[in-house]
Amino acid sequence: MKRLSMLLGLYALAAAVGAATPGEPVVTAAAAANPAASASVAATGPQRFTLSNGMPLIVQTDRRAPTAVHMLWVRVGSMDEVDGTSGVAHVLEHMMFKGTKTLPPGEFSRRVAALGGRENAFTSRDYTGYYQQIPSNRLEDVMRLEADRFANSQWPDDEFRREIEVVKEERRLRTEDQPRALLAEQLFATTFVASPYRRPIVGWMSDLDAMTPEDVRAFYRTWYSPSNAAVVVAGDVDPQQVLAWAEKYYGRIPVHALPERKPRTEPVQMGLRRIAVKAPAEQAYVAMAFRVPGLQRVTDLQDADRDALALMVLSAVLSGYDGARLERALSQGPQRVADAADSAAMVMGRGPALFVLTGVPAEGRNTTQVEAGLRAEIARIAREGVSEAELNRVKTQWIASQIYQRDSVQHQAQELGIHWIQGLPLDASERLLALLRDVTPAQVQQVAARYFGDDQLTVATLLPQPLDAPRARPAAAPAAGRRH
Protein backbone atom coordinates (compact mmCIF):
# COMPACT_ATOMS: atom_id res chain seq x y z
CA MET A 1 0.00 0.00 0.00
CA LYS A 2 1.69 3.11 -1.25
CA ARG A 3 0.90 5.37 1.74
CA LEU A 4 1.29 2.92 4.65
CA SER A 5 4.82 3.88 5.59
CA MET A 6 3.77 7.52 5.83
CA LEU A 7 0.60 6.71 7.73
CA LEU A 8 2.29 4.54 10.33
CA GLY A 9 5.66 6.19 10.57
CA LEU A 10 5.90 9.76 9.30
CA TYR A 11 6.62 12.18 12.08
CA ALA A 12 6.51 9.33 14.50
CA LEU A 13 8.09 9.77 17.93
CA ALA A 14 6.24 11.70 20.52
CA ALA A 15 6.40 10.82 24.18
CA ALA A 16 8.74 10.24 27.10
CA VAL A 17 11.95 8.35 26.46
CA GLY A 18 13.09 5.20 28.16
CA ALA A 19 10.07 4.79 30.38
CA ALA A 20 8.96 1.19 30.61
CA THR A 21 5.44 0.70 29.31
CA PRO A 22 3.21 -1.57 31.40
CA GLY A 23 3.04 -5.02 29.88
CA GLU A 24 6.27 -4.96 27.87
CA PRO A 25 9.20 -7.16 28.96
CA VAL A 26 11.91 -5.08 30.60
CA VAL A 27 14.99 -6.80 31.96
CA THR A 28 17.98 -5.35 33.77
CA ALA A 29 21.46 -6.68 33.10
CA ALA A 30 21.62 -8.13 36.60
CA ALA A 31 18.30 -9.94 36.23
CA ALA A 32 19.33 -11.35 32.87
CA ALA A 33 22.20 -13.16 34.55
CA ASN A 34 19.60 -15.10 36.51
CA PRO A 35 17.67 -17.50 34.22
CA ALA A 36 14.68 -17.50 36.55
CA ALA A 37 14.52 -13.73 36.51
CA SER A 38 14.67 -13.58 32.73
CA ALA A 39 12.18 -16.36 32.07
CA SER A 40 9.42 -13.81 31.53
CA VAL A 41 11.05 -12.68 28.30
CA ALA A 42 11.75 -16.12 26.87
CA ALA A 43 8.73 -15.86 24.58
CA THR A 44 9.07 -14.93 20.93
CA GLY A 45 8.89 -11.31 19.87
CA PRO A 46 10.98 -8.27 20.75
CA GLN A 47 12.62 -8.11 24.16
CA ARG A 48 13.70 -5.04 26.06
CA PHE A 49 16.60 -4.91 28.50
CA THR A 50 18.13 -2.14 30.59
CA LEU A 51 21.92 -1.88 30.81
CA SER A 52 23.69 -1.07 34.07
CA ASN A 53 23.90 2.62 33.13
CA GLY A 54 20.17 2.74 32.35
CA MET A 55 20.52 2.59 28.56
CA PRO A 56 17.72 0.59 26.88
CA LEU A 57 18.46 -2.35 24.60
CA ILE A 58 15.75 -3.84 22.36
CA VAL A 59 16.33 -7.15 20.57
CA GLN A 60 14.16 -8.78 17.91
CA THR A 61 15.17 -12.28 16.84
CA ASP A 62 14.53 -13.26 13.21
CA ARG A 63 16.47 -16.30 12.09
CA ARG A 64 15.30 -16.49 8.49
CA ALA A 65 18.64 -15.23 7.17
CA PRO A 66 22.16 -14.97 8.68
CA THR A 67 22.04 -11.19 8.89
CA ALA A 68 21.47 -8.57 11.57
CA VAL A 69 20.71 -4.85 11.79
CA HIS A 70 22.25 -2.83 14.59
CA MET A 71 20.83 0.64 15.25
CA LEU A 72 21.66 3.41 17.69
CA TRP A 73 18.79 5.83 18.29
CA VAL A 74 19.33 9.23 19.94
CA ARG A 75 16.30 11.22 21.03
CA VAL A 76 17.50 14.49 19.59
CA GLY A 77 16.72 16.14 16.27
CA SER A 78 16.28 19.51 14.69
CA MET A 79 13.48 20.38 17.12
CA ASP A 80 16.06 20.42 19.94
CA GLU A 81 18.19 23.09 18.28
CA VAL A 82 18.09 26.77 19.13
CA ASP A 83 17.75 29.67 16.74
CA GLY A 84 21.07 30.51 15.16
CA THR A 85 22.30 26.91 15.00
CA SER A 86 19.61 25.30 12.86
CA GLY A 87 20.94 22.20 11.13
CA VAL A 88 23.41 21.34 13.89
CA ALA A 89 21.79 17.96 14.64
CA HIS A 90 22.21 16.98 10.99
CA VAL A 91 25.75 18.36 10.81
CA LEU A 92 26.65 16.32 13.89
CA GLU A 93 25.30 13.21 12.18
CA HIS A 94 27.82 13.87 9.37
CA MET A 95 30.66 14.53 11.81
CA MET A 96 30.04 11.26 13.66
CA PHE A 97 31.72 9.54 10.69
CA LYS A 98 34.88 11.65 11.09
CA GLY A 99 36.77 9.81 13.80
CA THR A 100 37.11 8.95 17.49
CA LYS A 101 39.94 8.99 19.98
CA THR A 102 41.29 5.80 18.38
CA LEU A 103 39.94 5.88 14.81
CA PRO A 104 40.99 8.43 12.16
CA PRO A 105 38.38 10.09 9.90
CA GLY A 106 36.68 7.61 7.58
CA GLU A 107 38.02 4.53 9.36
CA PHE A 108 34.62 3.65 10.87
CA SER A 109 33.05 3.23 7.43
CA ARG A 110 36.06 1.36 6.09
CA ARG A 111 35.85 -1.17 8.90
CA VAL A 112 32.11 -1.72 8.47
CA ALA A 113 32.67 -2.33 4.75
CA ALA A 114 35.48 -4.77 5.55
CA LEU A 115 33.04 -6.71 7.75
CA GLY A 116 30.77 -7.14 4.73
CA GLY A 117 28.28 -4.58 6.02
CA ARG A 118 26.57 -1.42 4.88
CA GLU A 119 25.81 1.58 7.05
CA ASN A 120 24.22 4.97 7.10
CA ALA A 121 22.55 7.50 9.37
CA PHE A 122 19.53 9.81 9.36
CA THR A 123 18.28 12.93 11.10
CA SER A 124 14.69 14.05 11.54
CA ARG A 125 12.94 16.74 13.49
CA ASP A 126 12.50 14.27 16.35
CA TYR A 127 15.54 11.98 16.42
CA THR A 128 18.89 10.93 14.97
CA GLY A 129 19.72 7.32 14.07
CA TYR A 130 22.74 5.30 12.98
CA TYR A 131 22.65 1.77 11.59
CA GLN A 132 24.71 -1.06 10.20
CA GLN A 133 23.44 -4.16 8.40
CA ILE A 134 26.01 -6.92 8.65
CA PRO A 135 26.39 -10.71 8.69
CA SER A 136 25.10 -11.72 12.10
CA ASN A 137 28.43 -13.24 13.08
CA ARG A 138 30.02 -9.76 12.90
CA LEU A 139 27.52 -8.10 15.20
CA GLU A 140 29.93 -7.77 18.11
CA ASP A 141 32.39 -5.91 15.89
CA VAL A 142 29.90 -3.21 14.90
CA MET A 143 28.62 -2.89 18.46
CA ARG A 144 32.17 -2.18 19.57
CA LEU A 145 32.63 0.38 16.79
CA GLU A 146 29.32 2.17 17.36
CA ALA A 147 29.72 2.33 21.14
CA ASP A 148 33.17 3.87 20.67
CA ARG A 149 31.79 6.42 18.22
CA PHE A 150 28.86 7.27 20.48
CA ALA A 151 31.11 7.82 23.51
CA ASN A 152 34.32 9.14 21.97
CA SER A 153 33.55 11.04 18.78
CA GLN A 154 36.17 13.66 17.94
CA TRP A 155 37.54 15.21 14.76
CA PRO A 156 39.89 17.97 13.61
CA ASP A 157 38.52 21.39 12.73
CA ASP A 158 39.65 20.90 9.14
CA GLU A 159 37.28 17.91 8.84
CA PHE A 160 34.42 20.13 9.96
CA ARG A 161 35.32 22.85 7.46
CA ARG A 162 35.26 20.33 4.63
CA GLU A 163 32.08 18.59 5.78
CA ILE A 164 30.05 21.76 6.35
CA GLU A 165 30.51 22.49 2.65
CA VAL A 166 29.10 19.03 1.90
CA VAL A 167 26.05 19.82 4.03
CA LYS A 168 25.56 23.17 2.31
CA GLU A 169 25.71 21.50 -1.08
CA GLU A 170 23.19 18.94 0.16
CA ARG A 171 20.89 21.82 1.07
CA ARG A 172 21.30 23.32 -2.41
CA LEU A 173 20.61 20.04 -4.19
CA ARG A 174 17.75 18.75 -2.03
CA THR A 175 15.98 21.98 -1.14
CA GLU A 176 17.00 25.08 -3.05
CA ASP A 177 17.10 23.29 -6.43
CA GLN A 178 13.90 21.31 -5.75
CA PRO A 179 10.89 23.62 -6.01
CA ARG A 180 8.48 21.38 -4.11
CA ALA A 181 11.01 20.85 -1.32
CA LEU A 182 11.52 24.60 -1.19
CA LEU A 183 7.78 25.08 -0.94
CA ALA A 184 7.52 22.49 1.85
CA GLU A 185 10.22 24.32 3.80
CA GLN A 186 8.30 27.58 3.46
CA LEU A 187 5.03 25.85 4.37
CA PHE A 188 6.45 24.63 7.70
CA ALA A 189 8.05 27.99 8.40
CA THR A 190 4.67 29.67 7.92
CA THR A 191 2.47 27.07 9.62
CA PHE A 192 4.41 27.05 12.88
CA VAL A 193 5.17 30.07 15.04
CA ALA A 194 6.44 28.77 18.39
CA SER A 195 7.17 25.14 17.57
CA PRO A 196 10.74 24.33 16.48
CA TYR A 197 9.16 22.35 13.64
CA ARG A 198 9.24 25.68 11.79
CA ARG A 199 12.99 25.22 11.15
CA PRO A 200 14.29 22.99 8.33
CA ILE A 201 16.13 19.84 9.34
CA VAL A 202 19.08 20.68 7.10
CA GLY A 203 19.21 24.18 8.59
CA TRP A 204 19.00 27.67 7.14
CA MET A 205 21.95 28.49 4.91
CA SER A 206 22.93 31.52 6.99
CA ASP A 207 23.16 29.30 10.08
CA LEU A 208 25.30 26.78 8.21
CA ASP A 209 27.56 29.61 7.03
CA ALA A 210 27.99 30.79 10.62
CA MET A 211 28.32 27.36 12.26
CA THR A 212 31.56 26.53 14.09
CA PRO A 213 33.18 23.24 15.12
CA GLU A 214 32.45 24.13 18.74
CA ASP A 215 28.72 24.54 17.99
CA VAL A 216 28.66 20.91 16.84
CA ARG A 217 30.81 19.61 19.68
CA ALA A 218 28.62 21.38 22.24
CA PHE A 219 25.50 19.76 20.76
CA TYR A 220 27.22 16.37 20.92
CA ARG A 221 28.28 16.83 24.55
CA THR A 222 24.80 17.99 25.51
CA TRP A 223 22.60 15.32 23.96
CA TYR A 224 24.65 12.18 23.28
CA SER A 225 24.26 10.41 26.61
CA PRO A 226 23.10 6.83 27.37
CA SER A 227 20.16 8.46 29.15
CA ASN A 228 19.02 9.83 25.78
CA ALA A 229 19.72 6.86 23.50
CA ALA A 230 18.80 3.25 22.85
CA VAL A 231 20.32 0.30 20.99
CA VAL A 232 18.07 -1.80 18.74
CA VAL A 233 19.19 -5.10 17.20
CA ALA A 234 17.11 -7.26 14.87
CA GLY A 235 18.00 -10.42 12.98
CA ASP A 236 19.66 -13.80 13.45
CA VAL A 237 20.85 -13.17 17.00
CA ASP A 238 20.64 -14.58 20.49
CA PRO A 239 19.16 -11.97 22.85
CA GLN A 240 21.30 -13.00 25.83
CA GLN A 241 24.49 -12.79 23.78
CA VAL A 242 23.46 -9.39 22.44
CA LEU A 243 22.77 -8.25 26.00
CA ALA A 244 26.24 -9.38 27.10
CA TRP A 245 27.91 -7.47 24.27
CA ALA A 246 25.75 -4.39 24.86
CA GLU A 247 26.67 -4.37 28.54
CA LYS A 248 30.34 -4.78 27.65
CA TYR A 249 30.48 -1.94 25.12
CA TYR A 250 27.57 0.40 25.92
CA GLY A 251 26.90 -0.30 29.59
CA ARG A 252 30.18 1.28 30.69
CA ILE A 253 29.55 4.66 29.02
CA PRO A 254 29.04 7.38 31.65
CA VAL A 255 25.67 9.09 31.86
CA HIS A 256 25.25 12.85 32.13
CA ALA A 257 22.19 14.96 32.85
CA LEU A 258 20.21 16.39 29.95
CA PRO A 259 18.95 19.97 29.68
CA GLU A 260 15.33 20.56 30.56
CA ARG A 261 13.20 20.42 27.44
CA LYS A 262 10.88 23.40 27.32
CA PRO A 263 7.37 22.73 25.95
CA ARG A 264 7.34 25.46 23.22
CA THR A 265 3.64 24.90 22.67
CA GLU A 266 2.28 26.07 19.34
CA PRO A 267 -0.46 28.71 19.85
CA VAL A 268 -3.90 28.23 18.37
CA GLN A 269 -4.04 29.40 14.78
CA MET A 270 -6.49 32.27 14.40
CA GLY A 271 -7.13 32.42 10.66
CA LEU A 272 -6.13 31.29 7.20
CA ARG A 273 -2.50 31.76 6.19
CA ARG A 274 -1.52 31.79 2.53
CA ILE A 275 1.89 32.09 0.86
CA ALA A 276 3.23 31.94 -2.69
CA VAL A 277 6.67 30.59 -3.59
CA LYS A 278 8.32 31.54 -6.88
CA ALA A 279 10.87 29.06 -8.24
CA PRO A 280 11.93 27.64 -11.62
CA ALA A 281 9.62 24.69 -12.23
CA GLU A 282 7.72 22.94 -14.99
CA GLN A 283 4.42 22.69 -13.11
CA ALA A 284 2.59 24.56 -10.42
CA TYR A 285 1.88 22.85 -7.11
CA VAL A 286 -0.31 23.49 -4.08
CA ALA A 287 0.02 22.19 -0.52
CA MET A 288 -2.63 22.66 2.17
CA ALA A 289 -1.63 22.05 5.80
CA PHE A 290 -4.38 21.73 8.41
CA ARG A 291 -3.60 21.75 12.14
CA VAL A 292 -4.97 18.53 13.68
CA PRO A 293 -4.54 16.53 16.91
CA GLY A 294 -1.65 14.11 17.19
CA LEU A 295 -1.48 10.49 18.32
CA GLN A 296 0.32 10.23 21.66
CA ARG A 297 -0.57 6.75 22.88
CA VAL A 298 -1.98 3.39 21.81
CA THR A 299 -3.45 2.48 25.21
CA ASP A 300 -5.86 4.45 27.41
CA LEU A 301 -6.80 6.59 24.43
CA GLN A 302 -7.94 10.19 24.80
CA ASP A 303 -10.33 11.92 22.39
CA ALA A 304 -7.38 13.48 20.52
CA ASP A 305 -5.84 10.04 19.98
CA ARG A 306 -9.10 8.67 18.59
CA ASP A 307 -9.42 11.59 16.22
CA ALA A 308 -5.79 11.14 15.09
CA LEU A 309 -6.51 7.50 14.27
CA ALA A 310 -9.60 8.50 12.30
CA LEU A 311 -7.52 11.07 10.40
CA MET A 312 -5.05 8.34 9.46
CA VAL A 313 -7.91 6.31 8.05
CA LEU A 314 -9.28 9.38 6.27
CA SER A 315 -5.93 9.87 4.54
CA ALA A 316 -5.95 6.25 3.43
CA VAL A 317 -9.45 6.66 2.03
CA LEU A 318 -8.32 9.72 0.10
CA SER A 319 -5.04 8.43 -1.35
CA GLY A 320 -3.99 5.21 0.32
CA TYR A 321 -4.27 2.93 -2.71
CA ASP A 322 -4.41 3.04 -6.50
CA GLY A 323 -7.74 4.46 -7.55
CA ALA A 324 -8.54 6.02 -4.17
CA ARG A 325 -10.86 9.02 -3.90
CA LEU A 326 -8.46 11.82 -4.80
CA GLU A 327 -7.21 9.98 -7.86
CA ARG A 328 -10.70 9.15 -9.08
CA ALA A 329 -12.12 12.61 -8.47
CA LEU A 330 -9.23 14.85 -9.50
CA SER A 331 -6.89 12.87 -11.79
CA GLN A 332 -9.16 10.69 -13.93
CA GLY A 333 -11.61 11.40 -16.73
CA PRO A 334 -11.89 14.17 -19.33
CA GLN A 335 -12.68 16.83 -16.72
CA ARG A 336 -9.70 16.04 -14.51
CA VAL A 337 -8.07 19.00 -12.81
CA ALA A 338 -4.88 17.39 -11.44
CA ASP A 339 -2.02 15.28 -12.72
CA ALA A 340 -1.55 14.08 -9.14
CA ALA A 341 -3.24 14.55 -5.77
CA ASP A 342 -2.22 13.18 -2.41
CA SER A 343 -2.83 13.33 1.34
CA ALA A 344 -0.79 12.63 4.47
CA ALA A 345 -1.86 12.39 8.09
CA MET A 346 1.30 13.54 9.92
CA VAL A 347 -0.13 12.80 13.35
CA MET A 348 2.81 11.12 15.10
CA GLY A 349 5.71 13.12 16.43
CA ARG A 350 7.16 15.04 19.35
CA GLY A 351 5.76 18.27 17.93
CA PRO A 352 2.39 19.42 16.56
CA ALA A 353 0.50 17.39 13.96
CA LEU A 354 -0.66 18.26 10.46
CA PHE A 355 -2.95 16.85 7.80
CA VAL A 356 -1.58 17.79 4.39
CA LEU A 357 -3.31 17.76 1.00
CA THR A 358 -1.26 18.32 -2.16
CA GLY A 359 -1.94 18.55 -5.87
CA VAL A 360 -0.36 19.26 -9.26
CA PRO A 361 -2.62 20.99 -11.80
CA ALA A 362 -3.29 19.21 -15.08
CA GLU A 363 -2.59 20.98 -18.35
CA GLY A 364 -4.93 23.91 -18.74
CA ARG A 365 -5.86 23.88 -15.06
CA ASN A 366 -4.57 25.96 -12.16
CA THR A 367 -3.89 25.63 -8.44
CA THR A 368 -7.14 27.36 -7.52
CA GLN A 369 -9.07 24.58 -9.24
CA VAL A 370 -6.94 21.89 -7.61
CA GLU A 371 -7.40 23.48 -4.19
CA ALA A 372 -11.16 23.57 -4.75
CA GLY A 373 -11.13 19.93 -5.81
CA LEU A 374 -9.21 18.85 -2.70
CA ARG A 375 -11.60 20.78 -0.47
CA ALA A 376 -14.59 19.27 -2.26
CA GLU A 377 -13.48 15.71 -1.53
CA ILE A 378 -13.09 16.43 2.18
CA ALA A 379 -16.49 18.19 2.20
CA ARG A 380 -18.06 15.22 0.41
CA ILE A 381 -16.86 12.82 3.11
CA ALA A 382 -18.01 15.24 5.83
CA ARG A 383 -21.42 15.36 4.18
CA GLU A 384 -21.93 11.80 2.92
CA GLY A 385 -19.48 9.72 4.94
CA VAL A 386 -17.71 6.59 3.73
CA SER A 387 -18.97 3.06 3.36
CA GLU A 388 -17.95 0.01 5.36
CA ALA A 389 -16.80 -1.60 2.11
CA GLU A 390 -14.43 1.29 1.41
CA LEU A 391 -12.93 1.10 4.90
CA ASN A 392 -12.60 -2.68 4.67
CA ARG A 393 -10.63 -2.30 1.44
CA VAL A 394 -8.21 0.05 3.19
CA LYS A 395 -7.88 -2.14 6.26
CA THR A 396 -7.26 -5.30 4.22
CA GLN A 397 -4.36 -3.61 2.45
CA TRP A 398 -2.95 -2.40 5.78
CA ILE A 399 -2.83 -5.96 7.08
CA ALA A 400 -1.20 -7.31 3.92
CA SER A 401 1.38 -4.51 3.85
CA GLN A 402 2.26 -4.92 7.53
CA ILE A 403 2.92 -8.62 7.05
CA TYR A 404 5.04 -7.94 3.95
CA GLN A 405 7.14 -5.30 5.71
CA ARG A 406 8.05 -7.73 8.48
CA ASP A 407 10.15 -9.65 5.97
CA SER A 408 12.74 -6.89 6.35
CA VAL A 409 14.91 -6.91 9.48
CA GLN A 410 15.74 -3.29 8.67
CA HIS A 411 12.07 -2.40 8.91
CA GLN A 412 11.69 -4.35 12.15
CA ALA A 413 14.56 -2.48 13.78
CA GLN A 414 13.34 0.87 12.44
CA GLU A 415 9.86 0.29 13.79
CA LEU A 416 11.12 -0.71 17.23
CA GLY A 417 13.36 2.34 17.42
CA ILE A 418 10.51 4.67 16.52
CA HIS A 419 8.30 3.08 19.15
CA TRP A 420 10.99 3.50 21.79
CA ILE A 421 11.45 7.16 20.93
CA GLN A 422 7.73 7.78 21.30
CA GLY A 423 7.46 5.79 24.54
CA LEU A 424 5.14 3.20 23.00
CA PRO A 425 5.07 -0.49 23.95
CA LEU A 426 7.05 -3.03 21.95
CA ASP A 427 3.85 -4.38 20.41
CA ALA A 428 2.73 -0.91 19.29
CA SER A 429 2.44 -2.01 15.64
CA GLU A 430 -0.08 -4.69 16.48
CA ARG A 431 -1.96 -2.37 18.81
CA LEU A 432 -2.02 0.42 16.24
CA LEU A 433 -3.22 -1.91 13.51
CA ALA A 434 -6.02 -3.16 15.78
CA LEU A 435 -7.03 0.39 16.63
CA LEU A 436 -7.10 1.40 12.96
CA ARG A 437 -9.24 -1.63 12.13
CA ASP A 438 -11.74 -0.49 14.76
CA VAL A 439 -12.17 3.01 13.28
CA THR A 440 -15.76 3.40 12.10
CA PRO A 441 -17.24 5.25 9.12
CA ALA A 442 -18.88 7.65 11.57
CA GLN A 443 -15.52 8.57 13.11
CA VAL A 444 -14.03 9.28 9.67
CA GLN A 445 -17.00 11.45 8.76
CA GLN A 446 -16.74 13.34 12.06
CA VAL A 447 -13.07 14.30 11.66
CA ALA A 448 -13.66 15.31 8.04
CA ALA A 449 -16.28 17.75 9.33
CA ARG A 450 -14.26 18.94 12.34
CA TYR A 451 -10.71 19.76 11.27
CA PHE A 452 -10.77 21.23 7.77
CA GLY A 453 -11.90 24.79 8.27
CA ASP A 454 -9.93 27.85 7.19
CA ASP A 455 -8.94 28.93 10.69
CA GLN A 456 -6.50 26.03 11.03
CA LEU A 457 -5.27 26.05 7.43
CA THR A 458 -2.06 27.23 5.76
CA VAL A 459 -1.90 27.12 1.95
CA ALA A 460 1.36 27.27 -0.02
CA THR A 461 1.28 27.67 -3.79
CA LEU A 462 4.22 27.18 -6.15
CA LEU A 463 4.32 29.77 -8.91
CA PRO A 464 6.52 28.31 -11.67
CA GLN A 465 9.24 30.53 -13.11
CA PRO A 466 11.13 29.89 -16.36
CA LEU A 467 13.54 26.98 -15.98
CA ASP A 468 16.40 29.08 -17.33
CA ALA A 469 15.73 31.90 -14.85
CA PRO A 470 18.58 32.57 -12.42
CA ARG A 471 17.98 30.85 -9.12
CA ALA A 472 17.93 32.97 -6.00
CA ARG A 473 20.79 31.98 -3.75
CA PRO A 474 21.28 33.20 -0.21
CA ALA A 475 24.20 35.57 -0.01
CA ALA A 476 27.22 34.20 1.80
CA ALA A 477 27.95 35.79 5.14
CA PRO A 478 30.69 38.45 5.00
CA ALA A 479 34.09 37.08 5.89
CA ALA A 480 34.27 39.24 9.02
CA GLY A 481 31.04 37.73 10.25
CA ARG A 482 32.04 34.11 9.84
CA ARG A 483 32.81 32.14 12.94
CA HIS A 484 34.85 29.39 11.31
From TrEMBL:
Keyword match Signal: yes
Keyword presence, Isomerase: no
Taxonomic classification: Bacteria, Pseudomonadati, Pseudomonadota, Betaproteobacteria, Burkholderiales
Cofactor(s) listed in the protein's UniProt record: Zn(2+)
Organism of this sequence: Acidovorax lacteus
Protein name: Pitrilysin family protein
Alphabetical keyword list: Signal
Domain Peptidase M16 C-terminal: 211-397
InterPro entries attached to this UniProt entry: Metalloenz_LuxS/M16 (IPR011249), MPP/UQCRC_Complex (IPR050361), Pept_M16_N (IPR011765), Pept_M16_Zn_BS (IPR001431), Peptidase_M16_C (IPR007863)
Signal peptide, first to last residue: 1-19
Superkingdom as given in the UniProt entry: Bacteria
Protein family according to the UniProt entry: Belongs to the peptidase M16 family.
Residue ranges annotated for the Peptidase M16 N-terminal domain, each copy included: 60-202
PROSITE patterns: INSULINASE
PANTHER family, alphabetized: METALLOPROTEASE, MITOCHONDRIAL-PROCESSING PEPTIDASE SUBUNIT ALPHA
